[in-house]
Each structure stands twice: as structure tokens, then as C-alpha cells.
Amino acid sequence: MFLKAAINGGRSYEENAAVPITPAEIAAASVAAVAAGADIVHAHARTADGGQTIHPDDIARMIEAIRAEEATTIVGTTTGLWTCSGHVERMHLLESWRDDLLPDFASVAFCEEGAAEAAELVIDRGMVLESAVWSMDDVPALLAASTLHQNVRILIEPEDEDIDVAIAHAREMSRVIREAGVTAPILYHGYDQTAWPLVLAALEDGVQTRVGFEDMLVLDDGSVAPDNVAMVKLARQLESTFLTQIVTN
Prior knowledge:
Layout: E1 3-6, H1 23-36, E2 40-42, H2 56-69, E3 75-78, H3 87-96, E4 105-109, H4 115-124, E5 128-133, H5 139-144, E6 151-156, H6 163-179, E7 186-188, H7 195-205, E8 208-211, H8 228-248
Helix pairs in contact: 1-2, 1-8, 3-4, 7-8
């Protein structure tokens, strides 16, 4: 199973003191997550007061810290509109990211204004693209994008709070995307109460998944997650258990 560690998102110290926010914390958490079994890392750069940002200075500081900690770590970040004033500013900021301190990949959410243009810019800047859909309403825009077949993966992120509904919607989006001829890997992930159930659904469906503080604050038994490493290790344990059950059955 291909496993991404989404190590911080917009979470705060108040939610869990182990959430990495400073460049040094993000770098240490990124390297530790990969050492624990994650394949790649997704991290959100943060401002001095903890806000999410895609400002070139903050992106550069984060990437520089990770590279200094472990140069081989594969790391990506968001291009979400919630990090800036809107699409026009997003494009300006993305164009201003330093050539020598670019993330390896960047995510574009197709629920947002200007997603197709942002996706084109990610590729033009030399980064790897992954595109996200949050509901069936986003799928037509994804399928119409000029970058559709240039994605390294498609992220399916149902926003439904009901677990069964979220899983059903993830599978429906996956079906429609596959029927449209998309061959890129698909990744499921949820949020809070749907996070671990979607990890299990990903195992059942043979798709990629992700864990980490961006998606969940607890382990699958409801206990508080001490860090990203514990979540990565648990995901690998769930994978091992799932594969064992397949063999024994």
C-alpha cells in the first residue's frame, strides 16, 4: 500500500501539542514519518502565528528545513485558496516560489475557482501534480482539465460526516473517474471520524491512502495520537493484518 503522511494541515497546538508547525518541527516530523513507513509527505507551510500559507518565503523556509534534515524526503504541499485571498493571488504566489526550493509535488483541489489553471501552473513550474475531488460535483471539472492525464495520483476526499456515506461517495467518485479512462493511482482519505474508516476502505479497494494530523487526531481505538509516527505505524499494522486475513481466507 502506498502511504502518504499528511503531517499538519491546519491543525494547531491546542488540538495536539505534537502538531508540527515551525519549519524545524515540520522537517523533523517529515523525516520521522518516512522512517516509520510513509512513502511521501504532505505538509502545509505555516506563518509565524501558525496560519496556513503558500507565500514563497514560507514555502522556501519549509522546504529548506526538510532538505537540510534529509534531502531524499519526497514532500508536497497544498495550493488551497484558504491560504491566500483568492485565485489571482494564488497564481501570483505559485509563480513566485523559488526554483531552487520547490516542493516535489503540489495538490490542487478541483472544488476551487481556477483549479485547472493552477494545475497547469504546477506542471509548468516543474512540480509533480496531484488533483483532488471532494464530491461528485467536482469530478466534471477534473475530467475536463488539460492536466487530467498528467496527475501522479487523484485524491478522493469526501466531506461527508457519515462514515458509510463517505465511503460510498469515495467509491462512486473512483468508479466515475476510472470509467473516464483515468489510469493514475487513486488515493482515499477522510477527516476526523471518517479518516480511519477510509483507510480501511482504501485497503479493501487496493488504492492509496494517507494518515497524519491533517486528517485525524486519534488512533483507530479513539485514543489521542501521540504523533504522526504512531499513525503511520498503525496504518502499516492495519495493512499487515488485512493482508494476513486475505491469505488465511
